[in-house]
Amino acid sequence: MKTYKNIITAIVAVMVLSMASCKNDKDFLTENQKALDESNSLLNPAQFSVMSASMYHYIQLFYCSADQTKDAWILGLGTDVCFDPRDPTSKYNNWSIVNGTDNFSGDWWSWQYTLIKVANTLIAGAANPAVVWPSDAAKNAAIAEARYFRGFAYRNLANAFGGVPIVDAPVTEAKVDYVRNTRDEVYKFAQADLIYAAANLPLTTTQPGRVVRAAADHILAEVNISLKDYDGAIAAATRVIDGTDGNYSLVKARFGARAAEADKNYYYDLFVMGNQNTQTGNNESIWNAQFAVTATGGPVLGGVPGTLTRPLIERMMWCQYWGAAKLGYPGTPTDTSGRGVGFVKPTNYTNYNIWKNSGTDIRNNEVNIKRKYYFGADIKDGNGVVIFKKKDLIPKSYLTTREDTMLFVYPNWAKFGTDKHINAVPDNGYVRNFYVIRLPETYFLRAEAYLNKGRTDLAANDLNAVRGRAIATPVAAADVNIDYILDERARELFGEEFRMLTLTRLGLVYDRTKRFGSPESAASVQQYNNLMPIPQTAIDRNVGATLAQNPGYK
Hints:
Blueprint: H1 7-20, H2 25-29, H3 38-41, H4 45-61, E1 82-83, H5 103-126, H6 136-161, H7 183-200, H8 213-226, H9 230-241, H10 266-269, E2 285-289, H11 313-317, E3 345-346, H12 348-351, E4 369-370, E5 379-380, E6 386-388, H13 402-408, E7 412-413, E8 434-438, H14 439-452, H15 456-469, H16 482-493, H17 499-506, H18 509-516, H19 519-524, H20 536-541
Antiparallel strand pairs: 1-3, 2-8, 4-7, 5-6
């Protein structure tokens, strides 16, 4: 949100005004210590809004905190869907080196507890009778926003780590005796927060990226599944799907900035820059992290060092065919080729297996997954004879080295890049907002709840709502199981859903990685990797009690 960008300016202004109000040097130098806390720094709705903006900033960091593979961790790095193609020995290719010092999962832990800290401060501050609220509804909405983020953070922690310490109020003095609550206790705590949020958040907002009621019900549906409250999960998801929580629907027609281009389709439109927010007419979007260069997005302060202050999704997820001299390319990325460097590659499961017999599924056509690559110049043999002409299709037989298919040529998913960058600058020219929650996932959650109740017919209906939009063959009720739902999640949501958390929630990291992961990941993953390691720093600092590590990690 743009609010957090004004925090520093506001602080400077307050300092200047304070200095100007001093009557003399003696007054200026007189020490008057005051503790800054929720009792004196949160006194009106504007101040609550400024602090809440920091929570949205941390959502941005989920997608833009580092270069190379780190930002892919939450998307399923080293599991069934993707891996690091450059180094077979790297972390999550090699699960045996994942432990309590892992900064990928470790930062996830830290970010969630930071969200919780801010949320607790806001919730406590709202109880201060000195705060002037325009209405009870405004007060309740501010509390609901904070409770949404707290519930969301505890869901993220419980999914990834299992039971974790519940901190339900601001911590005002040193505390080193935390103990782990059970996983169910954490889910129940999150459930209560999300129920409150779903009842008190607004249905709509004019501020792109701000959470609304549907976001709370979506996360509540998942938490209810984790608590085996399948009826509650179905009810929460249904409120999103049936219009109770707002006007949401699957996109089935061209829309947005490039809708007039005949060679694209409406699924492609979902990922065109400028098309993600509901305020621009995308009724499939429920919650987005804001990155577009607008009043509510732009550079991510505290993100990737240097000038790379936007998500590196194209760089991370696309292959580097523009740099393959063997294929006739000069090593210079262009607007149409993008700036992929192959840090993360989809597995064979993601690129091929889930698309077997896909038929007319538009998610797998050349518009949405580029599979055909062409020579960038005439290719000659050792005698100078042209064996391939510029723009000839590159045959598989010409890709003979590991580097050819692990770095230079593999399917590029259009959702991760563009053929028309801002100002035709590939490196910094793909800046779109990121879906945190998109409506198809709500259908998948309800399908999962129906499956757990034994209603495979209703689960199939929900899966087919999404598959029908994609012009894919309907699934029969007899074929619906958790594997099929995870396959459909990969087809629709690869690179969007928190795949790592989906698999840890279900206890299927080991099983799915063993069956579908890269050879290195499949060989090294262990049963205990179904949960992530508790950060060793948290364990070491907690000297007043034992903060137990998850079994299996050293």
